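Example 4.3 (complexes with small molecules)
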Amino acid sequence: MFEISTKELFLWIKDIKKNKQGIDDFYLLLDLLGGISKSELLLLKINAQEKVNLNIDLISLKKKWLEYIKLSKPIQYISGSTYWRNFKFELTNDVLIPRVETEQIVEIASNIFDYEDKKIIFADLGTGSGTISISLVVENSNWKGLATDIDINAIQVAQKNHKKICSESNINFYCGNWWEPLKKYSGRINLAISNPPYIPRSVYEKLPSSVKDFEPKIALYGGEDGLYHIQQIISDAPKFLVKGGWLILENHFDQSKKIKNLLRDYGFNSLKTINDTFGIGRFTIGRYK
Ligand SMILES: C[S@@+](CC[C@H](N)C(=O)[O-])C[C@H]1O[C@@H](n2cnc3c(N)ncnc32)[C@H](O)[C@@H]1O
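Answer. The structure with S-adenosylmethionine bound is encoded below.
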């Protein structure tokens, strides 16, 4: 722990606000690296506390903030961590920063099966930092996860997060192309979830530098129309899902109609578009026969 003068900290905060440097990002950095939340900071002020204990010394914190100011590097990569649902996950440059809208996938998946004690085998295709599968096994104690990713470094991040958050070995991790490492589970998977790379070329090219320069292209870019990977995932799904098994996909704001047509072509029914909290048709789901 490092003892820091609250006066000095609040003067710095005042300066950041005055220079419009991104105060919310500063609070996030302070929380992730310093271990103090915005509401705890407010209490310091109310209680007129002279000193505050942080998990990082002031010089190192200033260096990290400068990295953000100079490079527009996302705070989550600077701190090597992020909050997602109920947990703090570790991150590296090899994985996408998990987005808030993706959190809803966990509810959608959990709500599909209502009989609590049935054993469910689910696949999380393109697991990244492991957020979706880890949250699912924590919330559904009888579920067993199979998490895949094409990038071995992403798999290592996910495994580390799994070890930190779960005491049980309820997820197996595999490196490979979508379903390909899951051959021995053919016809046995009850549910598959994927937040695949779905950004079309024209949109990818115009992404802000804070995304394009730092987040892995392999995690974002979905080919010319954004549907390259989604098509692969859907076309192989019938080999792996049980009859009556579900597929949940996250997609770009305008892709759901096309995805439903694809799902229909491959034998899915009960097709549905689900809006995210911003009212965008962010998720498409279907049931295999
Ligand atoms: C949009 S990110 C999603 C990461 C994480 N599931 C999340 O929601 O934050 C897509 C993930 O798919 C992985 N990926 C890309 N191409 C893949 C492929 N052909 N097979 C398996 N995974 C792939 C990327 O490495 C990346 O981790």
